[in-house]
Design a protein that fits this description.
The protein is mainly α. It contains 6 helices and no strands. The longest helix is centred in the N-terminal third of the chain and has 17 residues.
Protein backbone atom coordinates (compact mmCIF):
# COMPACT_ATOMS: atom_id res chain seq x y z
CA UNK A 1 0.00 0.00 0.00
CA UNK A 2 1.37 3.38 -0.99
CA UNK A 3 0.29 6.62 0.54
CA UNK A 4 0.76 9.63 -1.67
CA UNK A 5 1.16 13.02 -0.12
CA UNK A 6 0.40 16.21 -1.94
CA UNK A 7 1.99 19.58 -1.23
CA UNK A 8 -0.85 21.97 -0.56
CA UNK A 9 1.10 25.08 0.26
CA UNK A 10 4.69 26.21 0.38
CA UNK A 11 6.21 29.20 2.12
CA UNK A 12 9.79 30.23 2.80
CA UNK A 13 10.48 31.04 6.45
CA UNK A 14 13.63 31.94 8.31
CA UNK A 15 15.26 29.74 10.93
CA UNK A 16 14.08 32.23 13.56
CA UNK A 17 10.48 31.88 12.41
CA UNK A 18 10.86 28.10 12.38
CA UNK A 19 12.07 28.35 15.98
CA UNK A 20 8.83 30.10 16.96
CA UNK A 21 6.77 27.40 15.28
CA UNK A 22 8.77 24.57 16.85
CA UNK A 23 8.54 26.16 20.30
CA UNK A 24 4.76 26.06 19.98
CA UNK A 25 4.81 22.41 18.90
CA UNK A 26 7.22 21.54 21.70
CA UNK A 27 4.98 23.23 24.28
CA UNK A 28 1.93 21.33 23.00
CA UNK A 29 3.81 18.03 23.23
CA UNK A 30 5.04 18.84 26.75
CA UNK A 31 1.48 19.57 27.90
CA UNK A 32 0.24 16.18 26.69
CA UNK A 33 1.71 13.33 28.77
CA UNK A 34 0.85 10.69 26.15
CA UNK A 35 2.84 12.31 23.36
CA UNK A 36 6.59 12.26 23.37
CA UNK A 37 9.04 14.42 21.48
CA UNK A 38 10.17 12.35 18.51
CA UNK A 39 13.83 12.21 17.57
CA UNK A 40 13.42 14.25 14.39
CA UNK A 41 11.51 16.97 16.18
CA UNK A 42 14.05 17.08 19.01
CA UNK A 43 16.89 17.46 16.47
CA UNK A 44 15.00 20.21 14.64
CA UNK A 45 14.46 22.07 17.93
CA UNK A 46 18.14 21.69 18.78
CA UNK A 47 19.12 23.00 15.33
CA UNK A 48 16.97 26.13 15.46
CA UNK A 49 18.06 26.87 19.03
CA UNK A 50 21.67 26.78 17.89
CA UNK A 51 21.34 28.74 14.63
CA UNK A 52 18.51 31.27 15.16
CA UNK A 53 20.27 34.55 15.88
CA UNK A 54 17.29 36.92 15.65
CA UNK A 55 13.74 36.57 16.84
CA UNK A 56 11.02 35.82 14.30
CA UNK A 57 9.71 39.37 13.88
CA UNK A 58 13.19 40.84 13.42
CA UNK A 59 14.12 38.23 10.83
CA UNK A 60 10.89 38.83 8.89
CA UNK A 61 11.52 42.60 8.98
CA UNK A 62 15.03 41.99 7.62
CA UNK A 63 13.67 39.79 4.82
CA UNK A 64 11.12 42.44 3.87
CA UNK A 65 13.78 45.14 3.83
CA UNK A 66 16.03 42.96 1.67
CA UNK A 67 13.13 42.33 -0.71
CA UNK A 68 13.28 46.00 -1.67
CA UNK A 69 16.53 45.31 -3.50
CA UNK A 70 15.96 44.52 -7.17
CA UNK A 71 18.31 41.54 -7.42
CA UNK A 72 17.46 39.88 -4.10
CA UNK A 73 14.88 37.15 -4.56
CA UNK A 74 12.77 35.99 -1.57
CA UNK A 75 14.70 32.74 -1.18
CA UNK A 76 18.01 34.61 -1.16
CA UNK A 77 16.66 37.15 1.34
CA UNK A 78 15.77 34.23 3.65
CA UNK A 79 19.31 32.85 3.33
CA UNK A 80 20.80 36.24 4.13
CA UNK A 81 18.56 36.59 7.20
CA UNK A 82 19.60 33.12 8.38
CA UNK A 83 23.33 33.59 7.83
CA UNK A 84 23.66 37.30 8.70
CA UNK A 85 26.85 37.78 6.65
CA UNK A 86 29.36 40.21 8.06
CA UNK A 87 31.50 40.92 5.02
CA UNK A 88 31.49 40.78 1.24
CA UNK A 89 32.99 37.30 1.06
CA UNK A 90 30.26 35.78 3.22
CA UNK A 91 27.58 37.64 1.26
CA UNK A 92 29.03 36.49 -2.07
CA UNK A 93 28.78 32.89 -0.88
CA UNK A 94 25.02 33.38 -0.48
CA UNK A 95 24.81 34.53 -4.10
CA UNK A 96 27.13 31.78 -5.39
CA UNK A 97 24.31 29.70 -6.93
CA UNK A 98 22.58 32.64 -8.58
CA UNK A 99 22.97 33.43 -12.27
CA UNK A 100 24.11 36.96 -11.59
CA UNK A 101 26.75 38.70 -9.52
CA UNK A 102 26.47 41.88 -7.53
CA UNK A 103 29.00 44.68 -7.67
CA UNK A 104 30.73 46.05 -4.59
CA UNK A 105 28.29 48.91 -4.08
CA UNK A 106 25.26 46.61 -4.09
CA UNK A 107 26.98 44.24 -1.69
CA UNK A 108 27.77 47.13 0.67
CA UNK A 109 24.14 48.32 0.59
CA UNK A 110 22.92 44.85 1.55
CA UNK A 111 25.56 44.57 4.28
CA UNK A 112 24.42 47.93 5.71
CA UNK A 113 20.88 46.60 5.99
CA UNK A 114 22.10 43.39 7.62
CA UNK A 115 24.26 45.38 10.06
CA UNK A 116 21.15 47.11 11.42
CA UNK A 117 19.81 43.74 12.58
CA UNK A 118 22.99 41.84 13.49
Amino acid sequence: MTIFKETLDEEYITVSEAKNVLETVEAERAADDDRELRYELARAVEHVNRFAFLDGTESRALVEELADFEKVEPSVAIKIADVLPGDRTELRSVFANERYALDGEELDEILNVVAKYA
